[in-house]
Amino acid sequence: MRPRRGVASVLVPGLVGALLGCLLVVPVGTAPAAAGGRPFTGSGTWVSIFSGDAVWDHPERHVRRMQQRGVHTLFLQTASTTRPVGTDLFRPSQLARFIHAAHARRMRVVAWYLPPLRRVGREYERAMAAIRFRTGRGERFDGFALDIEPSASTPKGVTRDDNLRRLSSRIRASVGVSYRLGAIIPSPMGMAVSTRFWPSFPYETVGRFYDVVLPMSYHTYRVRGARDTYAYTMSNIAFLRERLGPAASIHVIGGEAGASNDAETTAFVQACNDAQVTGASLWHYTRYGPEDWRAFRRLL
What we know:
disordered N terminus
């Protein structure tokens, strides 16, 4: 886990004015549209391939629990940089059960995949395996999100940026303009502090090929307390709207659920409401506590 820093050290100069401008784009009091048939919206939660058999062996039980706690969008991992080995999808039969259970409860399911951005052809096939996946009943994922963050084997510099652009372009060309694609990206404020993590992050690639941006706005890595959590969340949102446009669709991923206290989670949700984002969630499902579920009940 990265060290925490005071909020003053992560706010980029000039964001206060940008933040105020962003908040004026949508009339105050206008709530986002209900989840309905749209993925990425409302309260979300995350299941990874490392969530354990207690989750993966009982999709129906956990989807029911999610729905009872107000979840609209389930983000379900289909592959990582190294798993599964020899196939493109992690536990396909269980993926189908998650999809069936969620759709039966009017929840949306977004597949997500973490590529190493090293072998574009191979990574394209893994992404498309999730997008093309169909259950025995003909049901599919409602959207797809690419987890854009470097791993130990990810190349650096121009090669990394070019591989991301090529992979994103191929996926978008294959799915067409109407399919909902999301880009999971590192925290813009975090990258402003850790400048060597990904210098000159290619926001233009994200804006060109993806419909929704999902910043990993992990306040638990950077700040403490409700006030700084609120400011850190708002700063990430403002930065993205300044770079991608005021109408950018944003689903904010907050800090580690187990490390965010009641006041901090409440402040995170309040920031997401005030900025009127598309959706919000914490990382990850198995670490949510009762206080987290209570706070997310207030998400508009």
